[in-house]
């Protein structure tokens, strides 16, 4: 793992720069005509998109790894647990029903929705649920939150709510402002930093709660904090970009290969892998037909489904 | 589970290999969990005056470690890595030493979820032994072990219960009792016997708790005295 770090970081940096500068045509042309316009394009349009892809991917990777470690289940992730759907519901409730426009306040609504969904999962399935129970409970929460979101949009006072929300909730980084990016990424980054502090506790919790408690890590406290910080990291990003699936499931899976199976130690690598995957996905969109904006969430789901099925199949053979 | 223990005081002089015996549901596991800090309790555990509850994770494993009866492990971590998780600081030579003592050589780099229950029991025991704790709390460490490993484990635990350390073990198989320095008898959440193993098994409290008694032919079920058969 230690030998992979520099390589991964370098790859991330290169990808981020490529993501920022591509397509370079309009950028170079603007530089020739009006340099200040090029700066504006880079700073106001391209930069938020790159930062959001990077940060959202990292947040999904890390919360996925933390939730999988907490639930002792390689299928737990922000999407499977219903927390992404809960965050979308929270954001729609705040945005369309309480008229919240401030990005940071909206991010708070998103985090609240994710926290409610995760708490619901804990109450429904418990922490040591088998995969089947957890998937069913997560599915129930995701479906309920999805239906609730549709209902809120249908009943919203704005007749364009459904149309507007397509761009928002399907998962996209296009046309987000710098303040929006900051509202999502600053709380998410703080939450991730606080999550990373539990890496060792989550590794010891792999030996069971009793062992963790006897080692001085209070499992109950760790559980509450992981749920709260995960809800903040995911919820704030969802409130700005919408729900994006599968990155939070796949990134920890890859990361654990680098940490020889350690679920807690995988938190930081999962964040790196998540950021890489998200940048790649958003870059791949630009290969699509021009003028048709495919939401990045659709791409990650299409690409992630076979991987998900593969994990399910390997799990049946005992992980 | 919680709240079934009656208030009691217990002092263990070191070194000592102590057996914790009692019928099913009598409170052996509850007592071990309470001592380990895995169960909320009002009691305090101090080792040479040092309060265990307030010791941070970097210090706690040097004071005490706990091996629960459950042998479940979800993640495909190697046996060697599981043992290393027991150490507050990385110490590959200590891990190698335990791999050798528990004869895990060929298994050490295999994921623990692929090991048999008995093999996994050895790996988890090695994890608990790793930081050389002052007090080692083990719940049924001898179950799932074959005869060789029962004897070998007792030998290893005898080694661990030397110098400034004590080992407290919940055991079911009373045939192993003679290997211990001291036996504690618990029933209905109360400590009802404390002494040499031979004294405890001969006591009336023992017979009442276990509803068996020992005669020249071995163990047999204790029958309540029948008034009609009395002369």
Chain-wise SSE layout:
The complex is a heterodimer of chains A (319) and B (231).
Chain A: H1 4-21, H2 24-33, H3 35-71, H4 83-97, H5 103-125, H6 131-155, H7 161-169, H8 178-196, H9 199-205, H10 209-215, H11 219-241, H12 247-258, H13 267-285, H14 296-316
Helix pairs in contact in A: 1-3, 1-13, 2-3, 3-8, 3-11, 3-12, 3-13, 4-5, 4-6, 4-11, 5-6, 5-8, 5-11, 8-11, 9-10, 12-13
Chain B: E1 16-21, H1 28-36, E2 46-47, E3 50-51, H2 60-63, E4 64-67, H3 79-85, H4 92-101, H5 117-129, E5 135-139, H6 147-160, E6 166-170, E7 182-187, E8 190-195, H7 197-202, H8 204-210, E9 212-215, E10 218-221
Helix pairs in contact in B: 3-5
**Per DSSP, what share of the residues of chain A sits in E-state strands of 2 or more residues?**
under 5%
Number of strands of chain B: 10
| Assigned CATH superfamily of chain A | ABC transporter involved in vitamin B12 uptake, BtuC
Rounded mean pLDDT score of chain A:
87
Provide the residue-averaged pLDDT of chain B: 87
Beta content of chain B comes to 15-25%
Q: Could you say what the CATH topology of chain A is called?
A: ABC transporter involved in vitamin B12 uptake, BtuC
What CATH architecture of chain A do you see? Answer: Orthogonal Bundle
* Oligomerization: heterodimer
**Element order, helices and strands of chain A?**
HHHHHHHHHHHHHH
Number of strands of chain A: 0
Identify the CATH class of chain A: Mainly Alpha
Structural commentary:
The complex is a heterodimer of chains A (319) and B (231). Chain A is mainly α. Chain A has one domain (57-285, 292-316): ABC transporter involved in vitamin B12 uptake, BtuC, CATH 1.10.3470.10. Helices cover 77% and strands 0% of the residues of chain A. Chain A is built from 14 helices and no strands. In chain A, helix 5 crosses helix 11 (219-241). Chain A is globular, with a radius of gyration of 19 Å. The mean pLDDT of chain A is 87. With 231 residues, chain B is α/β, with parallel strands linked by helices. Chain B has a domain at 16-70 and 133-229: P-loop containing nucleotide triphosphate hydrolases (Rossmann fold, 3-Layer(aba) Sandwich). Helices cover 30% and strands 19% of the residues of chain B. Chain B is built from 8 helices and 10 strands. In chain B, the strands form 3 sheets. A 6-stranded mixed β-sheet of chain B has the order 4-5-6-1-7-8, with helices on both faces. Chain B has a two-stranded antiparallel sheet with strand order 2-3. In chain B, strand 2 and strand 3 form a beta hairpin. The longest helix of chain B has 14 residues, at 147-160. Chain B starts with 15 loop residues before the first strand and ends in a 10-residue tail after the last strand. The model of chain B has no long low-confidence stretch (mean pLDDT 87). Classes of the chains: A mainly alpha (319), B alpha/beta (231). The A-B interface holds A 72-73, 200-201, 203-204, 206-211, 213-217, 256, 260-263, 318-319 and B 33, 36-38, 55-57, 59-61, 64-68, 70, 72-78, 81-82, 85, 111, 113-114, 124, 127, 137.
């Amino acid at each position: 793992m230690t030998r992979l770090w520099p390589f991964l970081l370098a790859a991330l940096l290169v990808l981020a720069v490529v993501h920022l500068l591509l397509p370079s045509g309009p950028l170079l042309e603007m530089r020739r005509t009006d340099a200040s316009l090029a700066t504006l394009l880079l700073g106001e349009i391209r930069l938020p998109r790159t930062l959001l892809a990077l940060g959202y991917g990292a947040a999904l990777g890390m919360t996925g790894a933390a939730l999988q470690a907490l639930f002792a289940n390689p299928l737990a992730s922000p999407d499977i647990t219903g927390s992404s759907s809960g965050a979308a519901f929270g954001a729609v409730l705040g945005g369309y029903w309480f008229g919240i426009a401030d990005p940071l306040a909206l991010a708070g609504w998103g985090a609240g929705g994710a926290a409610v969904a995760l708490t619901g999962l804990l109450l429904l399935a418990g922490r040591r649920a088998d995969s089947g129970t957890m998937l069913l409970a997560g599915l129930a929460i995701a479906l309920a939150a999805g239906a609730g979101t549709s209902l809120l949009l249908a009943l919203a006072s704005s007749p364009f709510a459904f149309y507007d929300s397509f761009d928002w909730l399907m998962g996209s980084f296009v046309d987000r402002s710098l303040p929006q990016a900051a509202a999502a990424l600053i709380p998410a980054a703080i939450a991730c930093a606080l999550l990373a502090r539990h890496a060792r506790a989550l590794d010891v919790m792999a030996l069971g709660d009793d062992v963790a408690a006897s080692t001085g890590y209070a499992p109950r406290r760790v559980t509450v904090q992981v749920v709260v910080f995960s809800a903040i990291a995911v919820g704030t990003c969802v409130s700005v970009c919408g729900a994006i699936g599968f990155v939070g499931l796949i990134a920890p899976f890859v990361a654990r290969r680098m940490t020889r199976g350690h679920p807690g130690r995988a938190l930081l690598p999962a964040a790196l892998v998540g950021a890489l995957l998200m940048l790649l996905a958003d870059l791949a969109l630009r290969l699509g037909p021009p003028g048709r904006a495919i939401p990045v969430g659709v791409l990650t789901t299409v690409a992630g489904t076979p991987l998900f099925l593969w994990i399910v199949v390997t799990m049946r053979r005992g992980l | 589970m919680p709240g079934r223990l009656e208030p009691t005081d217990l002092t263990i002089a070191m070194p000592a290999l102590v057996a914790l015996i009692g019928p099913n549901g009598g409170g052996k596991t509850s007592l071990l969990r309470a001592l380990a800090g895995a169960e909320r309790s009002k009691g305090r555990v101090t080792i040479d005056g040092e309060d265990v509850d307030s010791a941070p994770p970097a210090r706690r494993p040097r004071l005490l470690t706990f091996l629960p009866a459950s042998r479940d492990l979800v993640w495909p971590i190697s046996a060697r890595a599981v043992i290393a998780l027991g150490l507050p600081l990385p110490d590959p030579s200590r891990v190698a030493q335990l791999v050798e003592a528990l004869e895990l050589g060929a298994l050490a780099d295999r994921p623990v979820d692929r090991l048999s229950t008995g093999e996994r029991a050895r790996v988890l025991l090695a994890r608990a032994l790793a930081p050389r704790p002052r007090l080692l709390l083990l719940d049924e460490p001898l179950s799932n072990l074959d005869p060789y490993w029962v004897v070998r484990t007792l030998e290893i635990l005898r080694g661990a219960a030397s110098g400034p350390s004590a080992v407290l073990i919940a055991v079911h198989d009373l045939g192993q009792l003679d290997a211990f320095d001291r036996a504690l008898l618990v029933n209905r959440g109360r400590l009802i016997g404390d002494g040499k193993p031979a004294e405890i098994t001969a006591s009336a409290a023992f017979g009442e708790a276990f509803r068996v008694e020992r005669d020249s032919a071995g163990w047999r079920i204790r029958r309540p005295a029948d008034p009609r058969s009395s002369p």
